[in-house]
Amino acid sequence: METMEGMTRTHHCGELRAQNEGQEVVVCGWVSHRRDHGGLIFIDLRDRSGLVQLVFAEDKIGADQFPKAESLRSEFVVAVRGKVSLRDKETINPNMDTGEIEIYAEELRILNKAMTPPFYIQDGIDVDENVRLKYRYLDLRRPEMQKNIMLRHRVAKLMRDYMDKHGFLEIETPMLTKSTPEGARDYLVPSRVNPGKFYALPQSPQIFKQLLMVAGYEKYFQIVRCFRDEDLRADRQPEFTQLDIEMSFVDQEYILTLMEGLMKTIFATIGEEVKTPFLRMTWDEAMERYGSDKPDIRFGMELMDISEYVKGSDFKVFKSVLDNGGQVKAIKVDGYANIPRRELDGLVEYAQRYGAKGLAWIQYTEKEIKSPFKKFYSEETFQKIKEATNAQTGDLLLVVADKPLVVAQALGELRLEMGRRRGLINENEYKFLWVVDFPMFEYDEENKRWKAMHHPFTAPRDEDVQYLLSDPGRVKAKAYDMVLNGVEVGGGSLRIYNSDTQEKVFEAIGLTPEQAHEKFGFMLDAFKYGTPPHGGLAFGLDRLIMLMAKRSSIRDVIPFPKTQSASCLMTQAPSEVDAKQLRELSIRTAVAPKKKAETK
């Protein structure tokens, strides 16, 4: 293979324009496409900046150079010296940024050859994701993937600049720390020098950033890796990145306004003008209207309570639910009364997938009203429901009856599904909102105790402190989530800085003073030495970039992600380790070694 010696690159492929006409340039990259026209060979050369067309003319290039050009194949790595020339008007390519020019090659160096890749290195490929992940270094070579990663870089830089401008210090916190499991499972790291003991990888820097407030740094931020051992999905990874923020001597209004300015700044990089202030909605209102604490407000189809219209009937489903404190709610799908029965059956299964025992409906067709519970109610009742829901002839109502949280979950998911099916969601629109005043606690049915909805350092509203022990379900928190297009992109809270309140919260979630000290003793001790009022939040960088790049999975914006089984197909991690390593760590695995296959 040839070298770059004496042939320094002068331009990136995608930088050249008509104003470079006549310049001698050196470009380097990968062969993206080759067209052979006999004595004329055209090559599209690609680097991370884009494409440029090279022309190898047999009558204009050295006799030793043209045969090398004939040998070029896809993904060969080359360096080319040549002169920039304007294309003829009829050959200008409006689909390329460099489409007005081409480079007539004078010297070609083949720096490396390449095998035929397992998929085309181009955008919009239809390839199994597992193949893409196995050959991730090739997948990342594709232009659309490189755009995602470059967007990630630009956003991270803007975040740092914005936080610095507002007086924040970027401070690193430990990766090896104490296991304090609250929420997801920790990833554990065995200590060789302390046999039988383990570090934990941080689920977030929560404790350390609060200690930095105790230490008087006042404004902290960090773009940090976090780790959670939990079941995966499209927007979740075992290791992820967040913009972590904490600040002292501020109120909630200051934090929300500051973060709205951050979003305005970073979305400008994709040409989007973010309007502030954002809509604010309480958790109760979000659940009541949308059945979700992260509602997609790009379309309507809100949940409507029809309990009062269906009570007092012999219809057992509704009667049982309403007699036991449940509710009956509906969503209205405009112009869909003639939905096929097989699709209705599919929607029943869809609702059941999200906890509902079933799904009822009302079809206001032009000829009649159709409903599985029609015989239990008068025509007048269906007309009242029609008026209350503002339904028109031709509309469909989908109805769920159950406990409030089940109704919210099932109808909230049905709303999103029908929004997608009916084309109601504008994919080119960005709609932000803040969801505030979350419940402080949620009840854990499995363990029969209250647990913190966010984390146990979240401050309760001042007026609700009196109910921490007597009525935990009534307590609202000074917590807030930023939601974008139905995705939670960030969240945080004001923190507890009063030791009496902190002790009550620990007691409310079932921690004895001894257990609280065992888990968080160092933090509780620190709080005795003058703790300022403080609060903060964290943004999921991966989710933000996913939405900005208009991708459906965060795996498309993370350079080297894991699969849904938390494995890396490229490196084959996780993998077994040598028995010697385990002995050094004082570890014996509970999984029996695989037996070797018997030979006949």
How is this structure best described in words?
The protein has 600 residues and is an alpha+beta fold. 27% of the residues lie in helices and 24% in strands. It contains 16 helices and 22 strands. It has helices spanning 66-70, 129-134, 136-139, 143-165, 206-214, 252-267, 283-290, 307-310, 316-323, 341-353, 379-388, 404-421, 499-508, 513-526, 541-548, 579-584; strands spanning 24-36, 40-47, 50-57, 77-86, 101-112, 169-170, 187-190, 198-201, 219-227, 239-248, 279-282, 304-305, 327-333, 360-364, 369-370, 396-402, 432-436, 441-444, 449-452, 479-484, 487-494, 534-540. An eight-stranded mixed beta sheet has the order 6-9-10-22-21-20-17-11, sandwiched between helices. It has a five-stranded mixed beta barrel with strand order 1-2-3-5-4. A hairpin with a 4-residue loop joins strand 14 and strand 15. Helix 4 (143-165) packs antiparallel against helix 6 (252-267), helix 4 (143-165) crosses helix 15 (541-548) and helix 10 packs across helix 12. It starts with 23 loop residues before the first strand and ends in a 16-residue tail after the last helix. 33% of the residues are buried.
N-C termini distance:
48 Å
Give Rg in angstroms: 30 Å
Which structural class is indicated by helix and strand composition?
Answer: alpha+beta
Strand order of the largest sheet: 6-9-10-22-21-20-17-11
**Binned strand content:** 15-25%
Q: Care to count the β-strands?
A: 22
Oligomer: single chain
| Low-pLDDT segments | none
Calculate the mean pLDDT score and round it. 93
Q: Give the overall silhouette.
A: globular
